[in-house]
Design brief:
Structural class: alpha/beta
Number of helices: 16
CATH architecture of the largest domain: 3-Layer(bba) Sandwich
Keywords: Oxidoreductase
Largest sheet: 7 strands, mixed
Oligomer: single chain
Family: Belongs to the flavin monoamine oxidase family.
GO molecular function, one term: oxidoreductase activity
Protein name: Putrescine oxidase
CATH topology of the largest domain: FAD/NAD(P)-binding domain
Organism: Kocuria flava
CATH class of the largest domain: Alpha Beta
Length: about 475
C-alpha cells in the first residue's frame, strides 16, 4: 500500500492499524504493534500525549496534574519504566500521620490504622478481612462470572458496609479508600461488587487501604514522561496530536458487524487526517466512545453498556511551600478525615526539590459543592481543611493549583469509569468484546491495575495481541505470555 496520498485538501494515509488515543494504553498498543512489524497511526485529540497523566510547570513549580503513583504490584509499569531508562523515587512517609475524627478532634499516629478507638479499629479490621476474602474469591479478571455477582452488584457499597456493621465510624473510614480515594463517587452510587473489583485489582483490600503500598513511588520527571518516551520512540509520523477522531467506517451501508471479514478496509476520519487501515484500537475511556460516529452503528448492547459507565469527580489540589514545614513537626504529611473537605492529604514533594508540596483530594459530592463557589472561596476552604491536618502554615502556599479533569473536553472526569448499580455483572463480560475490526483498550476495562497506568499498559498490550492473533479476541484477563506482570 502507498503510505500517503491526497484527497482534495484532506491528507490521507494508509496503515495497518489505527489507534485512537495517545494515553498509556494507546501508546502501548502502538508500540507493541510496531515492534511486530505493523504500520500504525495514533490519533490524539489533545495537544499532548499522556491522557489522564499530565505534568505542568505552574508558577515555577512542577506539578503532576494527573495520575502519578506506582505501587509494588504494578510490574507492567515498573518494567516499562526500567526499559525506557526512567527512574522512580519513594513518597516521603517519615514521621506521624494525622487522623481527623468526626468530632473535629485531631490525632497523630504511626502505622496503617486510624486511631479511631479500640472498638472501631477492631471493626475496621474485621470488615477489611471480609473484603479481603471476597477479593481473593472473586478475583479481578471476571467478577461478573462469580455466583454471588448479582447479589453483590445490586447493593450499594454504602448499604453493604452497614449491613455488615453497626459501627458508623468504621463504615465511613473504610468508605474513604474506595469512594473518595479510588472511584471518586459517593459510596451509595456504586456496588459492593465494584468495590471488590477495585480491591482485587490491587491484590487485596488490605493493599488498597495501605497508603504506603498503593502510593509507594513516583516517576522522576512525572508519570506523563512514560507516555512521552513511548511517543518519542514511535515518532512524529506515527503519533498525530490535535487530531480528534470523528468517524470510524468500514464496509458498505448494508454491512453489519456480525458479518465482518478480517482485513476489510476501515476508514477513520479526524479533523486533520484520514487513515485507511485493517484494524482499529479505541484507547479512550468509555464515556468518550459516544464522541465518535461508528458506521455502521455499534450494536445495541454496546450502546446500553456505555450508558451505565461513568467517571467520578475529584479536585486534586496542589499546594507548594517554601519548605516542607510539616517535616519539622515530625509529620509525614499524610492525613485522613472522612468528614473533611480534603479527605486525604499527602506529601507530594518532587525529587530533589527543597520546597515542600502537598496534594489533597476533594471528591464526589464535596467537589460538587466547591465547584459552585467562586475560585477564591474554594481555595480558602480547601486550604483551611488542609490546615486542620498540618497547621496554619498550610494556609499560605507560594503556588496553588487545582486539577479539574471533569472540565477537560477529552476526559470529563476522574480517575476512571465505573458502573452504576447492577451494571458490572450485567455488562462486564462484554466490555472488551471486539465490534467488527474495533478493539477496546483503557485502564477503565482492566483487571489487574484497574484505574491505573499499569492497567492501561496491560490493556494496550492485550489489544495489540488480539490484533496480532496471539490471544482470543475479547479476553477478560491481562496475562500474556512474555508480558511483564
Amino acid at each position: 500500500m502507498s503510505d500517503q496520498r491526497t484527497l482534495g485538501s484532506e491528507r490521507a494515509i494508509e496503515r495497518d492499524v489505527v489507534v485512537v488515543g495517545a494515553g498509556p494504553a494507546g501508546l502501548m498498543a502502538a508500540r507493541t504493534l510496531a515492534a511486530a512489524g505493523r504500520s500504525v497511526a495514533v490519533l490524539e485529540a489533545r495537544d499532548r500525549v499522556g491522557g489522564r497523566t499530565w505534568s505542568r510547570t505552574v508558577d515555577g513549580a512542577f506539578l503532576e496534574i494527573g495520575g502519578q503513583w506506582v505501587s509494588p504490584d504494578q510490574t507492567e509499569l515498573l518494567a516499562l519504566v526500567d526499559e525506557l531508562g526512567l527512574e522512580t523515587f519513594p513518597r516521603y512517609r517519615e514521621g506521624a500521620s494525622v487522623y481527623l475524627a468526626p468530632d473535629g478532634s485531631r490525632h497523630t499516629y504511626t502505622g496503617s490504622m486510624f486511631p479511631a478507638g479500640e472498638a472501631t479499629v477492631a471493626e475496621m479490621g474485621r470488615l477489611i478481612g471480609i473484603l479481603d476474602e471476597l477479593a481473593a474469591e472473586i478475583g479481578a479478571a471476571e467478577p461478573w462470572a462469580h455466583p454471588r455477582a448479582r447479589e453483590l452488584d445490586t447493593v450499594s457499597f454504602h448499604a453493604w458496609l452497614r449491613a455488615h456493621s453497626d459501627d458508623e465510624r468504621a463504615c465511613e473510614n473504610i468508605g474513604i479508600f474506595v469512594a473518595g480515594g479510588m472511584l471518586t463517587k459517593p459510596a451509595h452510587a456504586f456496588s459492593a461488587l465494584q468495590a471488590v473489583l477495585m480491591a482485587a485489582s490491587a491484590g487485596s483490600f488490605s493493599n488498597l487501604v495501605d497508603e504506603d503500598f498503593i502510593l509507594d513511588r513516583r516517576v522522576i520527571g512525572g508519570m506523563q514522561s512514560v507516555s512521552e518516551a513511548m511517543a518519542a520512540e514511535l515518532g512524529e509520523d506515527v503519533v498525530f496530536l490535535n487530531t480528534p477522531v470523528r468517524t470510524v467506517r468500514w464496509g458498505g451501508p448494508e454491512d453489519t458487524y456480525a458479518e465482518h471479514v478480517p482485513g476489510t478496509p476501515v476508514t477513520v476520519w479526524s479533523d486533520r487526517l484520514t487513515v485507511v487501515a485493517k484494524d482499529v484500537v479505541v484507547a479512550v475511556p468509555p464515556n468518550l466512545y459516544s464522541r465518535i460516529s461508528f458506521e455502521p452503528p455499534l450494536p445495541r448492547l454496546q450502546h446500553q453498556m456505555h450508558q451505565h459507565q461513568s467517571l467520578g469527580l475529584v479536585i486534586k489540589v496542589h499546594a507548594v511551600y517554601e519548605t516542607p514545614f510539616w517535616r519539622d513537626k515530625g509529620l509525614s504529611g499524610t492525613g485522613f478525615g472522612a468528614h473533611e473537605l480534603a479527605q486525604e492529604v499527602y506529601d507530594n514533594t518532587n525529587h530533589d526539590d527543597p520546597r515542600g508540596t502537598l496534594v489533597g483530594f476533594v471528591s464526589d459530592e464535596k467537589a460538587d459543592e466547591l465547584f459552585g463557589l467562586p475560585a477564591g472561596e474554594r481555595r480558602r476552604l480547601i486550604l483551611e481543611s488542609i490546615s486542620h491536618y498540618l497547621g496554619e502554615e498550610a494556609l499560605h502556599p507560594v503556588v496553588y493549583y487545582e486539577s479539574d479533569f471533569g472540565s477537560e473536553e477529552w476526559t470529563r472526569g476522574a480517575y476512571a469509569a465505573s458502573y452504576d448499580l447492577g451494571g458490572l455483572h450485567r455488562y462486564g463480560a462484554h466490555q472488551r468484546t471486539p465490534v467488527g475490526p474495533i478493539r477496546w483498550a483503557c485502564s477503565d476495562l482492566a483487571a489487574e491495575g484497574y484505574q491505573h497506568v499499569d492497567g492501561a499498559l496491560r490493556q494496550g498490550r492485550l489489544a495489540a495481541a488480539e490484533v496480532l492473533g496471539q490471544v482470543p479476541a475479547g479476553a477478560a484477563g491481562t496475562a500474556l505470555t512474555g508480558a511483564a506482570r
